[in-house]
Every structure is written in structure tokens, then in C-alpha cells.
Design goal:
Number of helices: 27
CATH architecture of the domain at 407-433 and 557-665: 3-Layer(aba) Sandwich
CATH superfamily of the domain at 407-433 and 557-665: HAD superfamily/HAD-like
CATH topology of the domain at 407-433 and 557-665: Rossmann fold
Strand content: 15-25%
Shape: elongated
Structural class: alpha+beta
CATH class of the domain at 407-433 and 557-665: Alpha Beta
Distance between the termini: 27 Å
Length: 743
């Protein structure tokens, strides 16, 4: 869960963003500590710079601030179970308090109906006081406790506003009842206002807690993908065991309808696996002997024996869940706006309420009315909505991304991806398949089978990608492989060897031509030039000073790359290909995916690519835009590190997940377009949420100050602001990738 210098805490008792800001401030005062507190996820991530720090010190600091904290267990499953238990306990408490207060306040609805009709005294003030007494001081004890804890630690939060507002209405009514005892039948009191405010605030809090609990379920969904039991071979017998008993090296038996319990390699049989829950790829993938398979994927057809290579917390599924959980708990840069406002919000509202009371009392001479105006100001102010605006959208957005095979490292990557307008892509493995294949056989002397057989003989044993392509083509076409002798490598040019006593050559065409002695001057390389102009890497093959022909080898563009580039262009993004390959090959690949020549740059080293990205960033910065880079997460590390947001394609290898801002779990550039589209959708929700949060307060507080809002209406508006923000974030769950996917 946490790195050696990081402690993860579950925090409870927070009621608004001001609480999170307060806890963050308290923790950051500790020596060598850097903390981030997330109100929506109710968690704190604490980095310790100067060696280990006792977690009890952190917990004590949180408790001094008036809140509770517990260290997250090291096991991801246990940590999620603990967090779920805390969320469930909070929801039950909110729900129970809401039920009790709602039942007690129900009779007061008669009084409120009478108020609307212009009639008071339907329920005697004394009985109103009796009904609201437990609401104010038993159900409402949470607000007093929260307010006291915040004030004691030198801060102020939403509890302060609610406690002050409801107490003012209740004690004012109690005072009036005491002063006019014996003549209270038609006395105008405001017990129902304090009770209604508490009920409405609790209603909003209950809905908010329920929504936050639902937003956090992305991790539960991932963890549930792995089965609880599986079948393995033990001492020649097939037995069913718990996944917790699995060990590396165990052989799993997997059939149709079963989910894999571990990462592993197929040692016998074949499977069609639904990997949509990990990669976002909706089409089942065929896997045969030697293929790597992952925990949580579902077998739709076939049967296989799978040797486990990673189990439990070491699986790819667990790594994805950890990454998603960490990203959901991180803060987006845009949240700084809400944090700065939240830190000052409650004190400013308290000042406005005091000014409202003083000004109204001075202008009207009616202290009761002045008190009601001040109460309305206190209860309509909603720091909750500000605190929820960004993190709830981030939680949902990152959870949706994970279900579609898009793993954002943190909220910052999610936000920055929104402003990318230049996307640099590597060629090999990004626009292309990353697996060279033989695409042309040009036999000049003899048959194509002879040409291919001799080439495969000369390349046997080589691990070079081009050699593997020739060997694979020879194997599928049935070409004869002949033993060789006197083998030698000429670095940078090719190889030579003897086959059945004849000197043979394979390599770069010009070099082969120079090795043919007197015949070199008559060698026609026009065919080789033609193949090269088509984007193929060309090797020449010769035997006994006779050129047998040329073999063209190419890394084919992915079938989806052309459509993906078109999608990116439609999003207003310039796609630029940087490659270390030769210019002719790069030009051919670029043309095949609809890149204009000026957006294709070839012959670059990894450092050249990084320099090119820095130059692009200088231009992009003038318009506050960003530069992204797509690679495989292993090569081109300098370029990936230089980019504002890096996207690693390649199935989420461990290296890729460490390097990339975004890890793409399937080899398809369309997934990058999906990530950018989801980023834009999430940031749009954040902007909408911030608008809702600010507009409620900007409009509501002045209306309340000028006496244009009844305190009950103000309380309803306060609850509605939080509900609208959370509900708007939850709409992100409806997002669907245009390219299809598991959703």
C-alpha cells in the first residue's frame, strides 16, 4: 500500500474541506512531514523526509485537531475492507440520526405548514421545544463536538456554522418562551427552523456519504475480479483451494466460465480470455502455450494449464488496484483554488453573519429579525460543496478510467492531459505492431523458397528482430534450413558463412554488392531501393558470388492507428512522430496513418527526442498548453520523462507503470484518445462542480444577509449544494469510450 517513507491513514470525522485543510496543516507542522489530506476519500498520505516516523505521532496530531485516524493495513484487501467499514459506519450513523431527527421533526411540519398559511401556534411553543430538544442536543451533538474540536485546534469548519446557526435559533426561541411564559399561545418562535436545518443538513450528509461510498467502489470492483477459490494440481491430484493458499509455481486448471486467480504462463492448452476488465479491450483474446495471462481475466472458451508466476498482492490486478487507489487519493492542481477558499471561508462567513446581525438590528431595531438573518447566513454557507467539487470528480473519473484499461498515476496527470495539444508518438510498438515481418521476397536467381531457406540458414540462432522475422516466415512456408560453418558477423553490415561449401552472404544490400568481387559492378540494386522507398528494411542474400535476391521486412502499422490519429486530430491535437528509424521507412509509416511529412521526424536518438519535446514545450507554454509523449515505457525514457504527460503502451509492465503518467493496458493508440477524452470530461465536471459550489454561496449569502431567505430554505439550499456537486460527479459513471469497451 505505502512506500517505505509514506504512511497512509484513514481519517474520520471530517465534515467539510476546511477540516481536510486543518488536518493537513497540523500534519505538515511536524518535522520532515509532507501530508496530503483528501476530504472525499477520507484519507491522508503522509511522506516522511527524515527517516521513519512513528505512526502514533501522526494519529495523535490528527486527534489533537479533533478528528480520528487509523493506519491503513499493508494488505490492499485489508486496507479496502477497513476503509469500507469506516464508510459503512459513517453512513449508518448519518442514516440513523436522520431517521431519529426526521421522526421527531415530523409533527413540526404542521407548524411549518401553518407558517406558510400565515398562522402560528398550531403546536404550542412549549411542545415545540420538547420535540426539538433531542434534535438540537442529542442528534446535533455531532455539530457541537466538531465545532469544539475545530475551534480548540485554532480552526473553523462547517460544524461551527451549523452549531452557531441552529443554537441561535433554538436559544432565541427558548429565551422568548421564558420571557413570555404564561402568554405563549400565539408567541412566534423558531424551534422548527433549528430542527429543519439539522434534518436538512443530515439529509444532505447522508446522501453525500452514500454517493462517496459508491464512488469508492471502483477498487472493490477490481478486487472482486479475482475468484476466491481455484483448481490446482497437487501431487498429481486436482484440488480446490483458496486463492490465499496459491504459491508461485502452482499449476492452475482453467476452463470456460472461470476467472484466473493468478498471473501466469500457459503450459498446455489454449484459452479465449475476456480481458476487458483490465485492458478495456472488449473482444476476447486468444492465448496459447507460452502466452502470459493475468489474474481477474475471464475464460470465455477453451481449457488450459497455467503455471502461476505472481499471486496475491503481486499480481497485475493488485498493481492496478493500488495505482487506482493512490490516484483517487491524490490532489489535482485545480483543487488548490478550493483549498485556498476553504481555508478562509468559515471565518469570512462568521464575519458576514456578525455584520448582518449588527446592521439589521441597527437599521430595524428588531434584534429577533436580525438574529434570523444572521442564522440564514450561517446555514446557507456551504464549504462542503467546495471540498467535494474536485475530489469526487477525480475519484469517479479515475475509477472509470481503470475499468477501461487507463491507469492515471495521479490526479495531476488526469488534469494535465486535458490541456495537451501536441502528442508525440514513437513509431515502433505505438503506431506499428512492434513485430517485424517479412513483407516482400524478390528472387533474382532461383526460387523464393531457395532465397528464404538460405536466409533462414544464415540467420539461425540470431536474436535480432529481423532474423526472427525471417525465421518465422521460413517456418510457416516450409523452407529448408541447412547447417552452416565458418560463421562470422561483420558489425553494422551483415553476416557471412559457408553452406554446403559455398561462401554465402546476408546483409545490407550495398555491403553485399561490394563483397561480390568483379560481379559487384553489375549488381542491380534498383529493386532494393524500391522496397526501401515503401518503408521496408531490405536485406540482400548472395551465394558463390551470385546475388540471389532481396528480402523486405517491415513493422506493419497497427490496423487501428490510422483511425486513432484521425480521432486525435478531431480532438484538436497535433500528432508528431519521432523515430530512430531511417527517413524512408518513417515517411512510409507516417503516410500510412495520415501524418503530414512535416510531422514525421526520423533518425533521432532518445536524447534527440527529449530535446525535441522540450522545444515543443517552449512553444506550447505560450498558449498554456501541454505536450504529451506516447511510448512503450521502456525505451525512450528521456522523452517520456521530458513530456508534461507520458503515456506508456505495452500491457502495463512494471517499468511502464513506474515511468508513465498514464499506463495504457492495451496496445492501441485509440486508448490514448480515450484517455484524453475522459480527462476532458472529468475536468469539465470539476469546472461545473466549482461553479455550483461558488454560485450557491455567491447568490445565497447576500440573499440571506438581506433577509430574503428563510433559515429553513437556507438550510435546504446548503444541503442541495453538496448533493448537486456529488450527483454531478457521479454522472461521469455514464462515460463510455467511443472505441468501445467493457462499459
Amino acid at each position: 500500500m505505502a512506500t517505505p517513507d509514506t504512511i497512509e491513514l484513514d481519517v474520520s470525522g471530517m465534515t467539510c474541506a476546511a477540516c481536510a485543510t486543518r488536518i493537513e496543516t497540523v500534519l505538515n507542522r511536524l518535522p520532515g512531514v509532507s501530508a496530503q489530506v483528501n476530504f472525499a476519500t477520507e484519507s491522508a498520505s503522509v511522506r516522511v523526509a527524515n527517516g521513519p516516523l512513528d505512526s502514533n505521532v501522526l494519529i495523535a496530531a490528527v486527534e489533537r485537531a479533533g478528528y480520528q485516524a487509523a493506519v491503513k493495513p499493508p494488505s490492499l484487501e485489508e486496507a479496502q475492507a477497513q476503509a469500507n467499514a469506516l464508510h459503512e459506519a459513517e453512513y449508518r450513523r448519518d442514516r440513523n440520526d436522520l431517521i431519529v431527527s426526521g421522526v421527531l421533526a415530523a409533527p413540526l411540519a404542521v407548524e411549518m405548514a401553518g407558517m406558510l398559511a400565515g398562522t402560528h401556534g398550531l403546536i404550542a411553543p412549549f411542545w415545540q421545544m420538547i420535540l426539538t430538544l433531542p434534535i438540537q442536543f442529542w442528534v446535533g451533538r455531532r455539530f457541537y463536538a466538531g465545532a469544539w474540536g475545530a475551534l480548540r485546534s485554532g480552526g473553523a469548519n462547517m460544524d461551527v456554522l451549523v452549531a452557531l446557526g441552529t443554537s441561535a435559533a433554538w436559544f432565541l426561541s427558548a429565551y422568548l418562551l421564558f420571557v413570555h411564559r404564561g402568554h405563549s399561545e400565539h408567541l412566534e418562535v423558531y424551534f422548527e427552523a433549528s430542527a429543519a436545518i439539522i434534518v436538512l443538513v443530515l439529509l444532505g450528509k447522508t446522501i453525500e456519504t452514500r454517493a462517496k461510498r459508491r464512488a469508492a467502489r471502483a477498487i472493490d470492483g477490481l478486487l472482486r475480479l479475482a475468484p476466491e477459490t481455484t483448481r490446482v494440481e497437487r501431487e498429481g491430484q486436482t484440488v480446490g483451494i483458496s486463492v490465499r493458499e496459491l504459491k508461485r509455481g502452482d499449476v492452475l486448471l482453467v476452463g470456460a466460465g472461470e476467472s484466473l486467480a493468478a498471473d501466469g504462463k500457459i503450459v498446455e492448452g489454449e484459452l479465449h480470455l475476456d480481458e476487458s476488465m483490465l485492458t478495456g479491450e472488449s473482444v476476447p483474446q486468444h492465448k496459447s502455450i507460452g502466452a502470459t495471462v493475468f489474474a481477474g481475466t475471464l475464460c470465455s472458451n477453451g481449457f488450459a494449464r497455467v503455471a502461476a508466476t505472481s499471486t496475491g498482492e503481486s499480481t497485475q490486478l493488485a498493481a492496478i488496484a493500488r495505482r487506482t487507489l493512490e490516484a483517487q487519493g491524490s490532489k489535482a492542481p485545480i483543487q488548490r483554488i478550493a483549498d485556498r477558499v476553504s481555508a478562509l471561508f468559515v471565518p469570512i462567513v462568521l464575519v458576514i453573519a456578525f455584520i448582518t446581525f449588527a446592521a439589521t438590528a441597527w437599521l430595524t431595531g428588531d434584534t429577533t429579525q436580525a438574529m434570523l438573518h444572521a442564522v440564514a447566513v450561517l446555514v446557507i454557507a456551504c464549504p462542503c460543496a467546495l471540498g467535494l467539487a474536485t475530489p469526487t470528480a477525480v475519484m469517479v473519473g479515475i475509477g472509470v478510467a481503470a475499468r477501461n484499461g487507463l491507469l492515471f498515476r495521479d490526479a495531476q496527470a488526469l488534469e494535465l492531459a486535458c490541456s495537451i495539444d501536441v502528442l508525440v508518438v514513437d513509431k515502433t510498438g505505438t503506431l506499428t505492431e512492434g513485430k517485424p515481418v517479412v513483407t516482400s521476397l524478390a528472387a533474382l536467381n532461383g526460387s523464393e523458397q531457395d532465397l528464404l531457406g538460405l536466409a533462414a540458414s544464415l540467420e539461425q540462432g540470431s536474436q535480432h528482430p529481423l532474423a526472427k522475422a525471417i525465421a518465422q516466415r521460413a517456418a510457416t512456408s516450409g523452407a529448408n534450413i541447412t547447417p552452416i560453418t565458418a560463421f562470422s558477423v561483420v558489425a553494422g553490415h551483415g553476416v557471412r558463412a559457408q553452406v554446403n561449401g559455398a561462401d554465402c552472404l546476408l546483409g545490407e544490400p550495398t555491403w553485399v554488392a561490394t563483397q561480390l568481387g568483379k560481379a559487384a559492378t553489375s549488381v542491380d540494386l534498383s529493386t532494393a531501393h524500391t522496397l526501401a522507398s515503401q518503408g521496408q528494411s531490405v536485406v540482400a542474400v548472395a551465394r558463390a558470388e551470385t546475388l540471389l535476391g532481396f528480402i523486405g521486412i517491415a513493422d506493419q502499422p497497427r490496423a487501428s492507428s490510422r483511425a486513432a490519429v484521425a480521432r486525435l486530430h478531431a480532438l484538436g491535437i497535433r500528432v508528431l512522430m519521432l523515430t530512430g528509424d531511417n527517413a524512408e521507412t518513417a515517411k512510409a509509416v507516417g503516410a500510412s496513418v495520415s501524418l503530414v511529412p512535416e510531422d514525421v521526424r526520423a533518425g533521432l536518438t532518445p536524447d534527440d527526442k527529449a530535446d525535441a519535446i522540450r522545444k515543443l514545450q517552449e512553444v506550447a507554454a505560450r498558449s498554456h498548453k501541454r505536450v504529451g509523449m506516447v511510448g512503450d515505457g521502456i525505451n525512450d525514457a528521456p522523452a517520456l520523462a521530458a513530456a508534461d504527460v507520458s503515456f506508456a503502451m505495452g500491457g502495463g509492465s512494471a517499468i511502464a507503470m513506474n515511468v508513465a503518467g498514464v499506463t495504457i493496458m492495451r496496445d492501441d493508440l485509440n486508448a490514448v484518445a480515450d484517455a484524453l477524452a475522459l480527462s476532458r470530461a472529468t475536468i469539465s465536471k470539476i469546472h461545473q462542480n466549482l461553479f455550483f459550489a461558488f454560485i450557491y454561496n455567491i447568490i445565497g449569502i447576500p440573499l440571506a444577509a438581506f433577509g430574503m431567505l428563510n433559515p429553513i430554505i437556507a438550510g435546504a439550499a446548503m444541503a442541495a449544494s453538496s448533493i448537486s456537486v456529488v450527483s454531478n460527479s457521479m454522472l461521469l459513471k455514464r462515460w463510455r469510450p467511443p472505441t468501445g469497451g467493457p462499459n
